[in-house]
Amino acid sequence: MTYLSLLAWMISNYKMIGGDDQFDNLFHTICRTLNRRMLESKYDLNLLSFPYKPIFLPDMLIAIIALQNYSKLYNGTYQETIDKWILNAKTKWIHRPTGLLKSMLPGASKYKRQRKMKGSFIALNCSYLCLVNEMFALSQYNSMKNKMVHEIEFFGERILGIKEFTNKDPLFQLSGGDSGFTAKGLSAGGTAFALGCATFFEDWEFRSKLLRTAEIIGETVKREGNDTIDLEIFF
């Protein structure tokens, strides 16, 4: 699912900036397949990223973005599926103590207990939602700022970002995957991913604080022969 979703998302962006029809047949096939599999899914419109694993909601949101872009390009096709998924997200998959969309659902995992909330996934969810449903994204953004913002002292500097866990602040932990490392509970991945929604909502003050954190734990570099500035964060 994740590979197909990413590929469809990239093709949709290619189409939206004026690309030709060379990928159209592939685009139609992938989105038709994603929509069919979602409707047939025993996991309430969700699909697995990996066999025998939980549902990773940030991964599912990539599929939703791909279908949303297809809908914009082709007269609302698959919009009904998108709307159903968003309704489920708002009503079924919210972590009640925080008001945030859950990071994972049990899916095919043998562990049926409540999955942990992860700051890296929360920030990804929020940034991806900006491309699908702005009002839902804004409510999630506000909840993230209210519940997940974390300030620490790091080598003599006071820095702010997104914490990785809701229930602990480990001194140092290498979580792997999307999380990167955590320092005193502050998530490298979550802090980087939060830049997307902060930029989308033009929250420049908060964005500046996130960038300052990124500069302290990384550096801005200008690549030779490239007019763009890249931010390298060392996790």
Multimeric status of the protein = single chain
Spatial extent as radius of gyration: 18 Å
Low-confidence stretches: none
Q: Portion of residues in helices?
A: 40-55%
Largest sheet: 5 strands, antiparallel
Q: β content, as a range?
A: 15-25%
Q: Could you characterize what this model shows?
A:
The protein is an alpha+beta fold and 235 residues long. The chain folds into 2 domains: 1-106, no CATH class; 116-235, no CATH class. It is built from 8 helices and 11 strands. A 5-stranded antiparallel beta sheet has the order 5-6-9-8-7. A two-stranded antiparallel sheet has the order 1-4. Strands 2-3 form a two-stranded antiparallel sheet. The longest helix has 17 residues, at 24-40. The protein starts with a helix and ends with a strand.
